[in-house]
Design a protein that fits this description.
By secondary structure, this protein is of the alpha/beta class. It folds into 4 domains: 176 residues, Pyruvate-ferredoxin Oxidoreductase, domain 3, CATH 3.40.920.10; 176 residues, Thiamin diphosphate (ThDP)-binding fold, Pyr/PP domains (Rossmann fold, 3-Layer(aba) Sandwich), CATH 3.40.50.970; 67 residues, no CATH class; 109 residues, 3-Layer(aba) Sandwich (Rossmann fold). The chain contains 18 helices and 20 strands. Helix 5 runs antiparallel to helix 6, helix 7 packs parallel to helix 12 and helix 15 packs across helix 18. The longest helix is centred in the middle third of the chain and has 18 residues. The relative contact order is 0.10.
Length: 580
């Protein structure tokens, strides 16, 4: 058996491509919603060009009868409304000679870079069929073709389309349904129905994006104030949060820039309100000075950083795991803080919630790393579990005759934190080093004691099993983090089916590093494959810096926008070679 092959395939991968305004993303979102209504699990990613508005786009879907956490190695079907600039992201839509391309002859010739895959080609006169209906659109004909092929329910589809276009008027909804029906009854010539079935599991499923999941997580964690400046790909998290914070008695403020954002949430937290912001790499770079103030003053704040390609403006609409170094080491001075990474859409909820709870309980500052591929994907997932997490209660001062010491040296390193306004707990609050009372100090004894305090409280805290997702056995281990986890999970499953047992260690807590737990997870391992989406192997260097891993290590690393596929991981382990 070839372990790179998905031998338990009960899923299908579909890509829709077209120019700006063609409506491929709208069709993809409707297809995902209809799959949700029909009992499937799934994942949808969007691919855009670099333009602010318009330009080529694609909807990339994988649907199945079991939870799906990554795209497959290749797409089974590519449907093109047109070919305008499609070659810009052709590499993101890998095809094989077993794939099928459906294209409208009126759209012109298939680009050579796509035709080179050897995929079979079928014609579908999308524009002509749409033209039979006043106001008709080819994307709805395409939706009908795909829905019929997948065996989805036409009645549910009509209901989904009506709901999606209700704000555009009854005529738009009616013409969209007519186009859908035209495609549905026409079908795809020469193509048998897709051989997948919906899940028979009674468990409820959720339909949400990674950004929405992070938003839900911080609300569950207790955040009631957010301030942020819009930036791709984090902006839609803030749009989702704004009305929901208000419903919970909180508020979200759009700041004039990232510097203002970080200072606003420090102020809110200083006043006793759990607070967060969301940004991407360029914004995080601007926030770091303020973040240092939060660390020095032990004011709990959370930054959710949705990574994208860089440096500078980089590739705003594409994903990469290359803000790791700045999150870990971007501070000036010794500045211990928390760095966490969400592993999948569901885990965005838990990790964001956990980050808020940790920041509040430890009076620490936290960075949560997500990325564009995770944050802006939409997923059909099992209803997330709600692990028991300790309530985030700040340690409050006891009012005595003794002077209040905001930064008192305590056994667990966490000092009593007063809310401003109480005459009995007044103290100096700024970014200077200080004595236990908060009074600015440049004395070695104070600086050393406060450094020990800020670092010690993070190091000695018991983070439990949440530091990583671990599982499996065997003498080969995959270590990954963040959104690379989905591909690593599937690769491990394929290898297991081929009789090659593999351990998986997907790290959720990156700082402080849990060396003892890593040692235990790697006990008996003879080789390690590190998986990451970066060019400079940032994660590999992090592992070498923080852990004593004796086993030979190899690294599967590549930059965005191409994500790492399960097959690539399987191939690298099956044909093992150690990096120099």
């Amino acid at each position: 058996m070839n372990p790179a092959t998905n031998t338990n395939k009960q899923d299908i991968s579909v890509a829709l491509v077209g120019s700006g305004g063609a409506g491929v993303v709208a069709a993809g979102e409707l297809l995902l919603t209809l799959a949700f209504e029909s009992g499937y699990y799934g994942l949808m990613r969007k691919a855009y060009g670099p333009q602010i508005r318009g330009g080529e786009s694609a909807a990339l879907l994988r649907l199945g009868s079991y939870p799906i956490y990554c795209m497959d190695d290749n797409f089974d079907l590519l449907l093109a409304l047109d070919w305008q600039n499609t070659e810009r992201f052709a590499a993101e839509i890998p095809l094989a000679d077993t794939s099928l391309i459906i294209a409208d002859p009126a759209a012109g010739a298939i680009p050579p870079v796509i035709a080179a895959s050897g995929a079979a080609v079928e014609s579908a006169e999308l524009a002509a069929m749409a033209g039979e209906t006043p106001g008709g659109r080819g994307n709805m004909v395409a939706l009908g073709l795909l829905s019929g092929w997948l065996g989805l329910d036409a009645t549910k589809a009509r209901r989904c389309i009506s709901a999606a276009f209700s704000d555009k008027g009854s005529e738009v909804a009616a013409s969209s349904i007519a186009c859908f029906e035209r495609g549905f009854v026409t079908g795809i010539k020469g193509l048998a129905a897709a051989n997948i079935t919906p899940t028979s599991s009674p468990e409820p499923r959720w339909h949400l994006s990674g950004n929405e999941a992070c938003g839900l997580g911080v609300l569950r964690g207790g955040v009631r104030f957010a301030a942020a400046y819009p930036i791709t790909p984090a902006s839609d998290m803030l749009e989702w949060l704004a009305p929901r914070l208000e419903q919970l008695g909180g508020s979200l403020l759009q700041a004039e820039d990232e510097l203002a954002s970080i200072n606003m949430i420090i102020g809110a937290s200083f006043g006793g309100v759990p607070a967060m912001t969301a940004t991407s790499g360029p914004g995080l770079a601007l926030m770091l000075e303020g973040f240092g103030l939060a660390i020095a003053s032990e004011t709990p704040v959370v930054i959710i950083n949705v990574m994208r390609g860089g440096p500078s403006t980089g590739i705003p609409t594409k994903s990469e795991q290359t803000d790791l170094n700045i999150a870990l080491y971007g501070m000036h001075g010794d500045a211990p803080h928390l760095v966490l990474a969400a592993l999948d859409t569901s885990d965005c909820i838990f990790t964001s919630q956990w980050a808020v709870r940790l920041a509040e309980a430890l009076q620490a500052s936290a960075i949560v790393l997500s990325d564009q591929g995770l944050a802006q994907s939409r997923a059909l997932i099992p209803a997330p579990a709600s692990p028991e997490l300790a309530l985030a209660v700040r340690k409050k001062p006891e009012i005595t005759d003794a002077p209040y010491q905001r930064y008192a040296i305590t056994e667990d390193g966490v000092s009593p934190m007063a809310v401003p306004g109480d005459a009995q707990t007044m103290y100096t609050a700024d970014g200077l080093e200080h004595s236990p009372s908060g009074k600015p100090s440049s004395a070695f004894a104070d600086h050393s004691a406060q450094l020990d305090k800020r670092q010690g409280k993070l190091q000695q805290f018991d983070y439990g099993e949440h530091w990583a997702e671990t599982g499996g056995d065997g003498d080969t281990a995959i270590i990954c983090w963040g959104s690379s986890t989905g591909a690593a999970r599937e690769a491990r499953q394929r290898l297991q089916q081929a009789g090659i047992p593999v351990r998986l260690i997907a790290m959720r807590l990156l700082l402080p590093a849990r060396s003892a737990q890593m040692d235990e997870a790697l006990r008996g391992v003879k080789r390690v494959l590190v998986v990451e989406q970066s060019h400079s192997r940032q994660f590999l260097h992090y592992l070498r810096a923080h852990f004593d891993i004796d086993a030979p290590m190899a690294c599967l690393a590549k930059p965005g926008p191409l994500s790492i596929s399960p097959g690539e991981i399987v191939e690298r382990i099956s044909n093992w070679r150690q990096d120099p």
